[in-house]
Structure formats: structure tokens, C-alpha cells
Amino acid sequence: MTTAMIQAQQFPSREERKENGIHYTPRELSYFLASQLTKQYLAKHSNARNLRVLDPACGDGELLVSLVLALPPAIRKDTSVIGFDTNARAVTETQRQLSVLGLKHYEVHCCDFLSIAFECRDQKQLDLIFDDKPPDLKAVNSVDIVISNPPYVRTQILGSEQSRELARRFKLSGRVDLYHAFVIAMTKSLRKGGFIGLITSNRFLSTQAGTSLRDWLTREFRLAELIDLGDTKLFDAAVLPAIVIAEKEEGSYKHRSCQYTRIYEVQGAASGSTKFESIIDLLSEAYVGVASVKDRLFKVEVGSLGVSCDNAAPWILTSDTTEKWIHTISKRKSGIFADYGQVCVGIKTTADKVFIRDDWQTLPDEFVPEEELLRNLVTHHIAERWDINSQHHSTRKVLYPYIENNGRRQPISLADYPRAARYLQHHRERLEKREYLIESGRQWYEIWVPHSPADWERPKIAFPDISMVNTFFVVNPKWIVNGDCYWIAQTPSMPQHVLYAMLAVANSSFIVRFYDVMFHNKLYAGRRRFMCQYVKKFPLPSTKYSCALSNVVSKLLEAKASGKHALSLALEAESDSLVWESFGLVKET
Fold this sequence. Notes:
twelve-stranded mixed sheet
């Protein structure tokens, strides 16, 4: 993008902001972050003078203006501010707002900060990541405060080439998000003892993709305050935001003093709860408990940040009570799910309209694939706790173009399946557009994420990726699990009782509590992400309790199959209580 192109830009439209991960910070949230950040900075640097403040993605300037207004007037008049943004209209607006604040100096540049930040540290690399470098722009180093709401743009939107380049230049691993690179570049611009105030997606707190960022923050900073704003809908976007305030202090690993606040919507009647005009009012008063804001009910939790030495583990909100609870489980468990079976995501065809249908029998006979290649398909649409009731069986079937040969999966020979061959040839143009599949050495008619056909023959548990209620269920032999669900197969070495014990634990109220303590990856309206990385760490009780749970679950499944509703409910309650007991805990209400 040339400088002339940048200068010709208008304010980005709503669609452009969504595509490019741009979410301008609401004024009330901007001032809250600025107030918390200046409070932390001045508590450590009470005699601060000649401050240098940076926002590397300043948008329309709300964060910079709020930061300046939060400073005492005596400090403000000696403060210099620098901002960057790639939108010329936004830059002009930021300059206008800063011009009336009585600053010592301010400058706002219409260019890409990541290119500048990287270029300043590697003069041999003259090619830029996104934009042309403006002439005569000096390096941005040793600033005192960085405040920012960087853009959130995930790998699939960035594109593979830009993602690889960002990963290489900023030494990122796993799924790359643009804000990861921004945080690293900001850190390089911050002096030791300087503070960062960051608004970003809360995904980094709990996902594998956030491992690199968690590792970076714990190595480079002393974390001072963390606020997970959850599903408060403070932004006009699907992003669930978090606030991070930290001091640059390399290798500290001392984060026990970091206050961790978490706020999420809960269901229930708002009557009788403490009322607040806004989420920011609630946070400003350091309220803890359940409160109502404009007829929505929120639970506010406050504790300390728990950081594991293994940054692959999510950050958790902890307290003495929580740590005791976790310790009790650790003493009583015999292992975790991953010790007994592999937790896998279901198949991904990347061409569902070709491979998955509920109307196969309406096709001309010569196009209906051979029966042994059409498998019943489990999707989240038919998920039901414990067992899939026969009346809810899906009519969806998947064309699974694989056979087992000497213990290994291999694609079918089209010559051996003439009807499937005719059907696939009919859709060949569509299937060959999946260039990534062909480039990986696969046949054009394969699916992107398959599993061995033998895996589907074994007993297994499946569960949807996203659900409000933990929904784990046994799957009929030969049924295939779709990519909107995960599954756990009974391995040859798994004792018979373990699979049903897993089912009991996974469907218990105990595991909901365990999930919320250890992972807490929630979306809007209380929906949880039951991802592989979490479920494989679910605990299993001792053999004694696993056998007892397996026995109860066997009876429960029989009762459900026989339509004995009252008995099913009683056995489910018995199983739930037994799970709590097996870990040495009293069932929570």
C-alpha cells in the first residue's frame, strides 16, 4: 500500500473494520483503561516527568486522549505522545484531539507500526510487511507507557504468506494473530520499568494459539492487573475482550500479586441484585458478586492470576480456596483422559455439500455410492447427553472414501467402486479446487481430515465442540463423528470400565466446575468450548470409583433405552454425586 493510497482512505466501513479486525475502543472503556494504567504507573514512578507515550494502532485517538486526560496536569504538560495508524482520516482526527490538550509534543504517523518496529531493529531487511516506510521516521524506542487496542486478525484472514512472515519476524509459533505481533513490537519500544495497557481478545488466556503470547508476557513483564471482560458486549463485535496492565521487567515470573478480575453474564432474575448503570461503573467500584446492568445479570469474580510454569496451560483465576480444591483433586485422581484414550476432532471434508447428504437415495441409482462407503454421521445437531436416542438419529450420511489395508487407512480405488466413482467424477471440478489437499499429496477425491476406518468400529464417546451444557454421549459402532464434534475411542489397552467412567465424569456437574476453574473458555450466553486440549486433561478417579461409575452408567443407558425416564433421572443423580465423592469433594450447589 503506497503513501498516496493511504492518504486517500476514508474511515473504514463496518465491513472493512470487521474484515481487518479493527474495533475502535468505546470512550468509557478507553478512560477506564487509561485510569487504571496511570494509577499503576504513578504508584511505581511518583516523580514521573517528561513521559513518552505510544499507541501503535491509535485509530481515532480515544485511548491516547484518555491517557493524557488521566495524567495530572503537571505531568501532562511535559508529556510527548506518538501514534500510528494506517487510516489517514483516523490520523487526522487523532491529531485534532491531541492538539488541544496542552502537550509538550505530539506526532501521529499514517503508516504501519509493525513495519517500522521491525525495520528499526534489522536494517538488512528492507522489505516491509505491509506498507511503504515514510521518509525520515526515527525508531520508536524507550517509551514510558504504551496504551493500545491492536487489531485482531487471525491466520485464516491474514493469509498463509503474511502469517508465515509475521511468525518468522516476530518468532511466533502456532496460529498467528496480528495482535500477537503487535504486543511483541510494543514491548521492544518500551523501556525497562515502563508500563503497557492493552485491550485485546481474551482468547490468548485459554487457547493453545495463545501459548506464545502467554510465554512472552510472563518472560518480559511483571503482570500487574488482568481483567477478562467476557461477554459484556462492550464492543460492537464478536470479540470477547480482556485488559492487561503490566510493567516491563524481564524474567520476573512474579505474578502472584496480579489481580485477576473476570466478569461474565449469568442467567437468572435481576430482582434483588445490586444495580449499576454500566459495566465500567461496576468495575470502577471493584464490586464482587452478582450485579445487574440494564436488565442483564453479571457475575464478577476477583482473585489472583495463576500462571503455570508450562505456558501451554491456560492462565487461571485462583485463590487459596481454589488451590486447595485443585490439590484435593490431584491427590485423588488416577490419571487423566489422555492416559487412556486419544481425544480427536471429527472428520473435516472441506467439501460438505459433496460428501455429506441426507438425500442419497433420491439420486439416480448409478450415482448412489456403494453402501459400505456411506456411513451414518454424528453432528452437534443430534447431540444428546449419555446416548443418542434412536428417534433423533440423523438422516445425514457421509461418503467416506477410505478402506483399511493391513492396519492402515488408504483411499479407495475408484475402479473398485464404480457408483462412487461416477458420483465423485460428477463433482471433480469442485473437489479439485481444494488445491491445498492435492499439494499435500492426496487424491483429489479424499477428505481433508480423515481417520482410520477401523477407529469407527470401536466403542467411543462423542461431544460437540460448543455447548451450554456438557453433552457427552456414546456413539453406535461404525458411525462417523463430524468435525463440529470431538470423540474418544476405546483403545485396545483401555480397561472396559474406563470408557463409561469417562462418560460419567464428563457429564457431571463436577466437570463443569473443573472446566470453569482450569480453562474457562466461554463464548456468549454461557457456551463453553469443549476442545481437545481441555477434555484430554479431565481427571479420572481411582479404579474402585471408576468401576462403580461404570456400573451406574450401564444401568442408566439401559434405562434410557427402555424409556424409563424417572429411573434415568435417579441414576444420573447417583452418578453425579458419586463423581464428586470420588475426588474427595462435597457436591456444590
